[in-house]
Task: structure prediction
Amino acid sequence: MAEMPARERDRFMHDFALFAHAHQVPPPATLEGRAWTTWLVLGGRGAGKTAAGSAFVKAMALGEPPLGVAGVPVSPIALVGETEHEVREVMVEGVSGLISAHARHERPTWTSSRRRLEWRNGAVAQAFSAEDPESLRGFQFGAAWVDELAKWRHADASFDMLQFGLRLGARPRQVVTTTPRPIPLLKRLRDDPATVVTHAPTQANAAHLAPAFIDTVIARYGGTRLGRQEILGEFIEERPDALWSRDLIERSRVAAAPALARIVVAVDPPATSHEGSSACGLVAAGVGEEGMIYILADATVAGLTPAGWAGRAVALWRSLAADALVVEVNHGGDMVRAVLAQADPDVPVTSVTATRGKFLRAEPVAALYEQGRVKHAGMFARLEDEMCDFGPTGLSSGRSPDRLDALVWAVASLSFGARKVPRIRVL
Result:
């Protein structure tokens, strides 16, 4: 590189495709036999979303493959951010913004008074604030970059107005770069057949971030709802009629469990063992001397034979030095006992039978959470997703809540086992 002419070295250092992460590379114009309209880039803080948006706009404006015809610029391009300030400071003039994305000799000119970016080849990008949806009325575009859509105050109105203007060229396209929040617009966009989604956590871009930042945010927010959203870039769903809320679970979280008086592993076995069967719920919990219950592990498995999940259940029981396996035996009770005995004939098994529906069984356990009597010793993302999506009609997806069922049996056996409870009968 030291021997390169300055112009060539500058061009090399700004060759984004050479250095880009996989989640920052635009999908080909046709993917899996279909053309797409929206490229949705979801990621944690610092995952490189802004750089991906800048590279997309640059490629469009300069007519660079794979999205456009070589040498044929796409113009005009809409730049839409949360506010006018965010567009200028992040999307245009920021460290990973459009001006920095270009080599010096090809940088566009930013005219702040007109909120306009102009390239030497005649391509133009116009900046808009999502605070003013009507400002998009009357414009038309061949491409667009939408940044931090999940934060927009008027998300639906501003996004709709942009879509009406995205009408130039053979195939207008847009890139949406955002840290996900479970707003309805973003969920609809994610599920749209004309959308291609790429995703990355903050750690994917660690080489370009201060090591202290990674260490600090992981230590402070790892294993929390906020961390899953802002670091891992995950959709964290909420359901208004769910028995549990995200806030309730966060209030119930502790770093580790104390010494425990009793530990159980609850097993919610699938009724069948063929492909597509329900998972086998495996959740471990323990109770302390003071009566506080701690969730210790979620080892739920899917796609295994009865011998397979029985072996996993016994392995978890051994690893925690648990006192018993609590097993639901509504479906194939004799078979369940037999396969567990084959895995380890000495494991103590407590059989339980459901006499009420899943929601009614879960209600008293949810009440224990409300009373502050159950804690999560760590984060159990998929289990907690089920808990916060379980309402009177079950899970939104219609699937069986296998993890939640196992949790209910574990907590119930530790809290209600000493007295008669109408929802659970211990055999």
About this structure: The radius of gyration is 27 Å. Residues 86 and 129 are 8 Å apart (CA to CA). The chain is about 35% helix and 20% strand.
